[in-house]
Amino acid sequence: xxxxxxxxxxxxxxxxxxxxxxxxxxxxxxxxxxxxxxxxxxxxxxxxxxxxxxxxxxxxxxxxxxxxxxxxxxxxxxxxxxxxxxxxxxxxxxxxxxxxxxxxxxxxxxxxxxxxxxxxxxxxxxxxxxxxxxxxxxxxxxxxxxxxxxxxxxxxxxxxxxxxxxxxxxxxxxxxxxxxxxxxxxxxxxxxxxxxxxxxxxxxxxxxxxxxxxxxxxxxxxxxxxxxxxxxxxxxxxxxxxxxxxxxxxxxxxxxxxxxxxxxxxxxxxxxxxxxxxxxxxxxxxxxxxxxxxxxxxxxxxxxxxxxxxxxxxxxxxxxxxxxxxxxxxxxxxxxxxxxxxxxxxxxxxxxxxxxxxxxxxxxxxxxxxxxxxxxxxxxxxxxxxxxxxxxxxxxxxxxxxxxxxxxxxxxxxxxxxxxx
Length: 421
What we know:
The protein is of the alpha+beta class. The protein has a domain at 333-418: TolA/TonB C-terminal domain (2-Layer Sandwich). Helix content is 59%, strand content 13%. Helix 1 (3-36) runs antiparallel to helix 12 (301-320) and helix 4 (90-134) packs antiparallel against helix 8 (209-222). It is elongated. It starts with a helix and ends with a strand.
């Protein structure tokens, strides 16, 4: 694997792993905010949830950019002093080393799952588009939908299609929106209640909710492994349905009519699938109850305590992350291979004068394992011996240090002890 590919895999892998605790913190903070806003309008909770999901993307994206532009990826000449790992962090260092070795497999598994979810999403969009273009139109209801769209201030053409095998109305498209209505609703639901459901779909079109939903699908595809992402995305959909209910109720001037339409839909449903913009895209019972009795939701203290405890645990876990993980770099020191070193030549003058001593060297090991530079930290007291030590170390080869799995330059210390036997 080339250096750039290694850097990319390492950066993606550590970003995915770090998002485990980052996503947990975002999820806990969002849950606490949702509890605090339980009596607020759904638009506020919707904005908080959307902001949290956006943060779920922005945080790892910024971290990945930082990793790929860091010393290991750019290959610059930043020097890192060699440090020994203390016994208190030995277990942490061992775990990080093990994860570093498995990063390629982690990234491959993530990429495979993300590709499968992308294919699934693409097939779903294709299926919806195929239905929208294939099935029949109802001219009477098409005229009513167009008139309703004008009342909502929607300037784009809104098409309506009647679908035989569909559980509930759904809306697809943002530039050329289409409302797909189950054929069973046209024959089995009173027209005034069906109009209430269509007003709900107009609310989605007016707010461009289809685009937001597509963005959610992308985030779910990339961060599929984290439960917090799915929970936050689910909250967005639930709040979005409540907002559309409110818009429909305001348009009709009768919230109970919207509630009755949802109740009738619930009775008629059979094995419905929750698709992109379904009218049942939330808890129907809760939505009906809210429309009939729009009082503040009661606080679930058990859930609040659980969320606070989870937030505290996530914060403690984040603080326990080893220093090298918090700085977003995992480093391994260079290893000496003294079998590659040529035997140092004893200077003739020093041997004749029986000079002895210890030379302490600091030397720079490049990314290829060669010695690029050396310095005398402590002299033996004799310049010929000091020079001979520097010449000897230059003939050695080492296993280079690594940062996030990428070979980098690093300094080491070593002593040459000149003795006579």
